[in-house]
């Protein structure tokens, strides 16, 4: 079976940075750190979660709260009872434009006992969070990254990704074509070749792909290639080398595709990112 997440996480990594492990009470405003998201694990206690003054969730059981992109939020917790939380910033490579971060809902709230296979990771994470051991922070950071991968699996396996890349990866046939594009972006993928990867007819594949992912296979391939170009630009790579690696025959072809997707030339995009 094709590994749905391997190429994604290999090319667009995510790093966790723990910033809270203990008891909170009262009003707590959680502010994004730059372009990062946040992941909260509520071990015990009741928490009212609000976005922009409106209640988004009332958590009364051990739960996971995921913010893949920056979104200010507030936790309101009883002063007397308090709540035990462990929290981390999530730094997706490429920020909010990271394909994984961009594909996820703005806010995910899941009871911990509904996420299959999470028990062992959580037991170790909470043990590390509430003990003072050497290497504690490094251990917690890695465990948060493991938890995120398990959450991605859960969302795909349980049909909780409605439309977009993760919805496509949740489909047993479409995923074969999407993974093929992820692993070999420079290949000249025709609709027929992608349909063959999925084991479907050309028309059935095109319709199923558009319904699940929300765009045509060709548009998706261009989005994936442009995301790879953006990553390479940040790394300081030359346009000529990037063009060869992602399947554009020349710098000019790459620039046209990039501008069609982003509204800016590669040079303008990079300059804007450097000023931000």
Describe this structure in words.
By secondary structure, the chain is of the alpha+beta class. Helices cover 46% and strands 21% of the residues. It is built from twelve helices and nine strands. Helix 6 crosses helix 7, helix 7 crosses helix 8 and helix 9 runs antiparallel to helix 10. The longest helix is centred in the middle third of the chain and has 22 residues. It is globular.
Annotation keywords:
Jelly Rolls, 9 strands, 46% helix, 21% strand, Arc Repressor Mutant, subunit A, alpha+beta, 276 residues, single chain, five-stranded antiparallel sheet, globular, four-stranded antiparallel sheet
Estimate what percentage of residues fall within beta strands.
15-25%
Side by side, the strands of the main sheet go 1-8-3-6-9
Low-confidence stretches: none
| CATH architectural arrangement of the largest domain | Sandwich
Number of helices: 12
Broad CATH class of the largest domain: Mainly Beta
H-E string: HEEEEEEEEHEHHHHHHHHHH
Helix content: 40-55%
Largest sheet: 5 strands, antiparallel
Question: What class do helices, strands and sheet pairing give?
Answer: alpha+beta
Number of domain units: 2
**Distance from first to last alpha carbon:** 41 Å
CATH topology (level 3) name of the largest domain: Jelly Rolls
Number of strands: 9
What do the pLDDT scores average to?
A: 92
In short:
The protein is α+β, with helices and mostly antiparallel strands and 276 residues long.
Topology, pairings included?
Elements: H1 6-11, E1 14-24, E2 26-30, E3 37-44, E4 47-51, E5 54-59, E6 63-67, E7 73-77, E8 83-92, H2 99-103, E9 108-111, H3 119-129, H4 136-157, H5 165-170, H6 174-183, H7 191-198, H8 202-213, H9 217-234, H10 239-246, H11 251-262, H12 266-275
Helix pairs in contact: 3-4, 6-7, 7-8, 9-10, 9-11
